[in-house]
Design a protein that fits this description.
Blueprint: H1 2-5, H2 12-24, H3 27-43, E1 45-46, E2 53-54, H4 60-63, E3 68-75, H5 81-87, E4 92-96, H6 115-122, E5 128-131, H7 137-150, E6 156-159, H8 175-183
Parallel strand pairs: 3-4, 3-5, 5-6
Antiparallel strand pairs: 1-2
């Protein structure tokens, strides 16, 4: 239970539930899970182009000829790619920064994978870079910093839309979200 509790989002009760669940499963299933975890650690690597996690290098997205190589979406973490892919609207490629600027936590530009992004822009093959960092102070700071670095390359730089969720109610929106929705409005 102590080892399970070290996983993110797993407290003592969840760890206890998982441990007892595993004890009730056949040994073969528990061994398959253990083997899958070992293989996860051994076979997963960083893509040398975009910094995504993958089992091959370059990753499947970077090596896909069906993706628009001139359209690049910049995200903070590999986990940010999954929801973008699920929506089915983006057919370009990615660049993962592996974090966001956070001076209070000692994370500056040198701790992020920004140099590779600048190099990709310098090659001249990019038409647009979409900054899809999180709508936090750190994410906004990172987006502004990256945009400043990319401006000399004459690339269209855009930011993902921020604002109200579909099905949301104006009564429940905070002032910052509502302000972003107003300033980020588009013509119908």
């Amino acid at each position: 239970m102590a080892e399970l509790q070290r996983l993110p989002g797993i407290g003592s009760k969840s760890a206890q539930r998982l441990a007892f669940h595993l004890l009730r499963r056949p040994a073969s299933e528990v061994e398959e899970l253990a083997q899958a975890l070992i293989e996860l650690q051994q076979r997963t690597r960083w893509c040398s182009i975009c910094n995504n996690l993958a089992d091959e290098d370059p990753c499947a997205i970077c090596s896909s000829p069906e993706r628009d190589s001139a359209l690049l979406c910049v995200v903070e973490e590999p986990t940010d790619i999954l929801p973008i892919e699920r929506c089915g609207e983006f057919r370009g490629r990615y660049h993962v920064l592996l974090g966001a600027l956070s001076p209070l936590d000692g994370i500056g530009p040198d701790q992020l994978k920004i140099a590779g992004l600048v190099e990709r822009a310098r090659c001249g093959a990019l038409r647009e870079v979409i900054l899809a960092t999180n709508p936090t102070v750190e994410g906004e700071s990172t987006a502004i910093y990256v945009a400043k670095l990319l401006r000399p390359f004459a690339i269209k730089i855009s930011r993902i839309g921020l604002g109200l969720p579909v099905g949301g109610d104006l009564d429940y929106a905070d002032e910052v979200t509502l302000a972003r929705a107003i300033t980020g409005r588009r013509e119908l």
